[in-house]
Design a protein that fits this description.
By secondary structure, the chain is of the alpha/beta class.
């Protein structure tokens, strides 16, 4: 392959000896009458005859390249993909499994979608109109897949660009990974790319996730645990990941600070309750500012001492203004006849969203 390779097809394999020949036959068939230069890159961790079959086939087909990992090099599906990304020579990279559940003919559709629509990422989705997850064997796997989909989309805004963030079948422009350090765990590499890569446009196409033809599913409980660890790692290391959720967590801690100081000042130091409330509110705002600076907006550090002072002042002004807004919402719904607890809850919801928007746009706005 030369530097003009258009597409690199990255195929991690683990004991797929029954699948290699039919898979390659399908791939070569769909590219036979297409004027697209491509390479097929196997990243193999097998301990059976799979690498031998690939090597024999590669002698007859110069599209095929094999990287066989041995012993301690076998570190899972995610690292296999990363190895493939680094070795890939194509302008675009397509990821799919080697178990024939991803129909290879859809690669052409994804590639042409990327070219025509100038998309940086094209995802084959089971959960869009025209797609199907019929290949998921059993109600348990279907439930886990759907639950994961919604959980990830709730947690990470960036994954809402597709209906199937857990898809293992997708294509992307290689240069979106330039100077990007991927740190995946488990097997959901697409989530990692959506959260860390530098891209503009995401497209998706429908596809049918086919029933497995050979071998049994390699999904295990330990892989599920690794996935949860991976999601937590993204949440704690990617600044944009779940920023609103982080903001709410900090806000919850502020409630504890507020009520804690109020109780201590009144019960142990015999403060006037109104004065104690005011002091507690000011301290909780200070606590929220410090934690948001460290946890929620840690990617937007102050560039100078003066900016830090301005941020503190703006934060207090916004927080106090939002408290007034909160009270106004509370009284409004009370006048409409809502139960006072419900009115207070609605006020909290409105004020939390408003507070988040204002501090994001004003206090921790991105530095130019």
């Amino acid at each position: 392959m030369n530097n003009k390779t258009l597409l690199s097809i990255v195929l991690p394999t683990y004991n797929e000896k029954e699948n290699i020949k039919p898979l390659l036959a399908e791939v070569n068939k769909i590219f036979f009458d297409k004027n697209y230069s491509y390479e097929i890159l196997f990243i193999d961790d097998s301990i059976d005859e799979t690498p031998n079959i690939i090597q024999k086939t590669a002698k007859k087909d110069n599209h095929i390249n094999l990287i066989h990992r041995k012993g301690k090099e076998r570190t899972g599906l995610a690292t296999a993909f990363i190895k493939g990304f680094k070795k890939a020579k194509g302008k675009y990279i397509c990821c799919l499994d080697s178990d024939l559940q991803h129909p290879p003919k859809k690669m052409i559709v994804m590639l042409e979608e990327a070219i025509v629509e100038n998309a940086d990422i094209v995802i084959a989705s089971r959960y869009t109109k025209g797609g199907s997850a019929v290949g998921l064997d059993g109600a348990y796997r279907k439930f886990i897949s759907i639950a994961l989909r919604y959980f990830v989309q709730i947690l990470f805004i960036q994954t809402r660009k597709t209906t199937d963030p857990g898809s293992g079948f997708f294509l992307f422009r290689k240069n979106i990974l330039k100077n990007v350090k991927l740190q995946p765990r488990g097997f959901k590499i697409l989530i990692e790319i959506l959260m860390r890569a530098k891209y503009s446009k995401v497209s998706q196409i429908p596809y049918t996730f086919l029933p497995r033809k050979n071998e049994e599913s390699k999904a295990t409980m330990s892989q599920g645990i690794e996935l949860l660890k991976h999601l937590w790692f993204i949440f704690t290391t990617v600044p944009e990941a779940g920023r609103f959720i982080k903001f709410c967590i900090v806000g919850g801690s502020g409630v504890i600070v507020n009520l804690g100081f109020l109780f201590v000042l009144v019960e142990y130091f015999d403060f006037n309750k109104n004065l104690a409330w005011l002091i507690s509110v000011l301290l909780s705002i200070a606590s929220n500012f410090i934690l948001n600076n460290i946890f929620t907006y840690n990617d937007r550090k102050s560039s100078s001492h003066n900016q830090s002072i301005k941020r503190i002042i703006y934060y207090y002004l916004i927080s106090l203004a939002v408290m007034i807004f909160n009270f106004a919402i509370y009284k409004f719904f009370m006048l409409l006849g809502f139960y006072y607890i419900v009115s207070a809850f609605i006020g909290i919801l409105f004020s939390t969203f408003l507070n988040f928007i204002l501090v994001t746009k004003i206090v921790w706005k991105k530095n130019k």
